[in-house]
Design a protein that fits this description.
The chain has helices at 33-43, 57-64, 85-91, 93-96, 115-122, 177-184, 195-204, 224-237, and strands at residues 2-7, 27-28, 31-32, 48-53, 73-78, 101-105, 108-110, 128-134, 142-146, 152-157, 166-174, 209-213, 218-220, 241-242, 245-246, 251-253, 256-258, 263-265, 268-270, 273-275, 280-282, 285-286, 290-292, 297-299, 302-304, 307-308, 313-315, 320-322, 325-326, 331-333. With 355 residues, the chain is an alpha/beta fold. The strands form 7 sheets. Strands 5-4-1-6-11-8-12 form a 7-stranded mixed sheet, with helices on both faces. It has a 6-stranded parallel sheet with strand order 14-17-20-23-26-29.
C-alpha cells in the first residue's frame, strides 16, 4: 500500500499564522502536525508516501525533506490550485498507480494511529473504507448514513437533519476503483471535485464501501481553539523528560518535558507542558497544557493553555497569558513608556482581548 497526505490549502481559518506558514507545520506539543501524520502512516507499515503541496510547497519540502528522517520515502505532488480533495487524489494517480492507498488530511490529529484500519482494509474485499467518528454536532460535518448491514448508504455534507452522528474525519482507504469514480463526477457548486461525491459514486455503482468507526479522540486542527485542544490532548498523553537544565529555585510539577538546551531559572512549570530546545524560562510561571517551541524567552511572565512558536519573546506581562496561539518571532512585552497605552502591530484576522 501507499500513503497520500494532503498538505495544500491556504489555511484561512488559522490566519494570521498561516499568512507566513503552512498550517500543517504549526506544532502540537512541539511537533508539526504534518510530522505526526507522516509518523502515523509509517507506524501502520506504509513507507511510500506522496504529499500533495500547494502554495506552501517550498516550506513543506524544506521541513520534511526526502522522508529519510522519518524512515519513509516522500514524493511531492504539486496541486496548482485548491480544486478539491478528489482533484488532489486524481493528480496523484501516476504516483499511486493501481495500488491500494490511504489518504490522510495533513492537518488532522488522531489518537491511537491507523494500524487497525490498515489491517482491516488489507484483509477485506472492500473497494473503499472511510473513517468516521461519533460527534455531538453532526450538522457541522459531512455525515454518513449506513445501511442495515453497516455499509455506507449515503454521504451528506452538513445536513440540516442528520440521519446519524457519524462524521467523516479526513482519513480514507481506496482501491483502484476510485479512479473511475473520480472521472465520473463533476465540480460542485463551489467549483471543486469533492471526495464525498466520488465516494457516493462508488456506492451508487455497487462498489463495497464500509466505515471504520474511530473510538479515540480526533481533532481537525484548522482553527485556533481546535489547535489548542489537540495540544492539550497530546500533552496529556506524554510522559516527563529533562534534557535541559533546571536550577534549584525552580519547581517542576507533573508531566513536563524539557528539551535539549532549554533552561528553567527561578520559575515554576506545572504540567502537562513542554519547553522547546534552547528556550529560556526566567522568573516565570508556565501552566498546564502549554507548549513553548524552540529558542524562545519567557521572562517575568505567566502563561498557560497556549502554544508559542519559535523565536518568541514574552517579557514582563502584567497579567497571565492564556488560551493563546503566538506565531513565530513575536515579541509580547510591557512597555514602561509614558503615557500608558497599548501599542500593537497585528496581522489580518488577529483577535486581541485587553483589560
Amino acid at each position: 500500500m501507499k500513503g497520500l497526505i494532503l498538505s495544500g490549502g491556504n489555511g484561512t481559518r488559522l490566519r494570521p499564522i498561516t499568512y507566513t506558514s503552512a498550517k500543517q507545520l504549526v506544532p502540537v506539543a512541539n511537533k508539526p502536525v504534518l510530522f505526526r501524520v507522516i509518523e502515523t502512516i509509517r507506524d501502520a507499515g506504509i513507507v511510500d508516501i506522496g504529499i500533495i503541496v500547494g502554495n506552501t510547497a517550498a516550506e513543506v519540502m524544506a521541513a520534511v525533506g526526502d522522508g529519510s528522517k522519518f524512515g519513509v520515502k516522500i514524493t511531492y505532488i504539486q496541486q496548482d490550485a485548491p480544486s478539491g480533495l478528489a482533484h488532489a487524489v486524481k493528480i496523484a494517480h501516476p504516483f499511486i498507480g493501481d495500488e491500494k492507498f490511504v489518504m490522510f488530511l495533513g492537518d488532522n490529529c488522531i489518537q491511537g494511529g491507523i494500524s487497525g484500519l490498515i489491517k482491516q482494509f488489507q484483509d477485506s474485499t472492500y473497494n473503499a473504507q472511510i473513517v468516521l467518528k461519533e460527534v455531538p454536532n453532526p450538522r457541522s460535518f459531512g455525515v454518513a448514513e449506513l445501511n442495515p448491514n453497516g455499509s455506507i448508504l449515503r454521504l451528506v455534507e452538513k445536513p440540516k437533519e442528520p440521519k446519524s452522528n457519524l462524521a467523516l474525519v479526513g482519513i480514507y482507504m481506496f482501491d483502484s476503483s476510485i479512479w473511475h469514480a473520480i472521472d465520473s463526477i463533476k465540480p460542485s457548486a463551489r467549483g471543486e471535485l469533492e471526495i464525498t461525491d466520488a465516494i457516493q459514486a462508488l456506492v451508487d455503482t455497487g462498489k463495497t464501501v464500509f466505515p471504520y468507526v474511530h473510538r479515540g479522540w480526533w481533532i481537525d486542527t484548522g482553527k485556533k481553539d481546535d489547535m489548542l485542544e489537540a495540544n492539550r490532548l497530546v500533552l496529556d498523553e506524554m510522559g516527563e523528560q529533562n534534557n535541559g537544565s533546571i536550577d534549584a529555585a525552580s519547581h517542576i510539577i507533573g508531566k513536563v518535558i524539557i528539551e535539549d538546551g532549554a533552561e528553567v531559572i527561578n520559575s515554576t512549570i506545572r504540567g502537562p507542558a513542554i519547553i522547546g530546545k534552547g528556550t529560556r524560562i526566567i522568573n516565570s510561571y508556565v501552566g498546564p497544557f502549554t507548549s513553548i517551541y524552540h529558542h524562545c524567552t519567557i521572562q517575568n511572565s505567566e502563561i498557560e493553555h497556549s502554544i508559542v512558536l519559535e523565536d518568541c519573546t514574552i517579557n514582563d506581562l502584567p497579567g497571565r497569558l492564556c488560551d493563546s496561539l503566538i506565531g513565530r518571532s513575536v515579541v509580547v512585552s510591557r512597555s514602561s513608556a509614558r503615557p500608558s497605552a497599548y501599542r500593537l502591530v497585528l496581522g489580518d484576522h488577529s483577535h486581541v482581548d485587553v483589560l
